[in-house]
Amino acid sequence: RRLTGLPWFSAMAVIEGNRLVYESYAADFRADQPHSIMSISKMSANLIIGRLWEEGRIDLGETIGAVLPWIGAGYREATVQDVLNMNVKNGYDEDYSNPDTTAFLHEAASGMRLPTGGEPSNRDFIAAIGLAPGAKDTVNDTGTYLYKSANTDVLAFVAEARGGRALGQWLADLADAAGVEGALHVATDRQGFPLLNGGICLTARDLCRYGAVLGRLGLGVDGRPFGSDPFLRATLAGGISMPPPRGHLRYSNQTNTNGVWLGHGGYGGQYLITNPKTGRTAAFLSVLQDTSGYDPSYYPPIIAMLAEICAGG
After folding, report:
1. Which of 79, 48, 10, 22 is nearest to 312 (CA)?
2. d(CA 72, CA 64)
3. Model pTM score
4. Closest Cα partner for 254 from 45, 37, 80, 38?
5. Is 90 exceeded by the pLDDT of residue 292?
6. Could you report the per-residue pLDDT of 140-157, keeping only the tens digit for each?
């Protein structure tokens, strides 16, 4: 009641299997209204890369440069696995309290923000990311993950290079695998390349259906695999520590996990959790209205609530 009564609240939904357990909406938001899920979009990269890995088309230990010869020094020697785990140190930063953060330049390149000069493509921007100042490599020596939305776009280019088809076709199949009631909307850059780093928009119910694909360990509603069961099991077991206030979680293969559930947050107040053991998935959508649109202390109560609901009982 407290969290769904906040002035920033948009929608919340919970499903168990094919049953809608709970839903709640703000007075100015409808059940059939799509909402940006921001970085919860990144979980789609887990499903796509996991499928390609299981099919033997991607080696998690190979370098990004081996897959994408055009990539710059910021990713050339990083492995696919390190990019999946946000375990790469380079010249890209994502500090929303800094008006000059690289992430805002990335948004301009991908069409999410007006550019101040020319209109570079997302690929050109990603290719130009270099090493961190003074660094000789991309090794992460911080002891915790280094969150970079550019990592997901790198993985998207990897998926397109090794998948043999356009990324949009993967997203069409994802919509079918989730069994969306409405539509899976996704933003693209100026060249039509889908933005897996944060471009997907779904209703609250359909966000739960999307998360349930991971909760079923990669199976679509028709029982056919879209992601990868062994890859998702490895996701639950692996990962890099996250700093406080999420120190009890790990960042693993484009998800957050505590070894029991899989989830992800989104800029502005979104969070999704799916629990493979109980078959429950819960989504919370909101629009946090402060100076930066982000507050790390806002998320822990939401995460705790969704995790407790998805634990069942």
Report:
1. 22
2. 10
3. 0.96
4. 45
5. no
6. 999 999 999 999 999 999
Nearest to 178 by CA among 54, 311, 37: 37
**Torsions phi, psi for 303 (to 5 deg):** -60, -45
Residue-wise pLDDT tens digits, 42-78: 999 999 999 999 999 999 999 999 999 999 999 999 9
Q: Is the peptide bond before 99 cis (omega within 30 degrees of 0)?
A: no
Q: Residue 214 corresponds to which amino acid?
A: L
Token readout for 83 is 């990019």
Across 22-36, 94-108, 197-211, 220-234, least confident range: 94-108
Instruction: Spell out the residues 6+ positions from residue 275 whose beta carbon is closer than 8 angstroms to its own.
Output: 215, 260, 261, 281, 307, 310, 311, 312
3-state secondary structure the chain: CCHHHCCCEEEEEEEECCEEEEEEECCCCCCCCCEECHHHHHHHHHHHHHHHHHCCCCCCCCEHHHHCCCCCCCCCCCEHHHHHCCCECCCCCCCCCCCCCHHHHHHHHCCCCCCCCCCCCHHHHHHCCCCCCCCCCCECCCCCCCCCHHHHHHHHHHHHHHHCCCHHHHHHHHHHHHCCCCCCEECECCCCCECCCCCEEECHHHHHHHHHHHHCCCECCCCCECCCHHHHHHHHHCCEECCCCCCCCEEECCEEECCCCEEEEECCCEEEEEECCCCEEEEEEECCCCCCCCCHHHHHHHHHHHHHHHCCC
What per-residue confidence (pLDDT) applies to 210? Answer: 98
Among residues 286, 287, 264, 288, the alpha carbon closest in space to that of 274 is found at 264
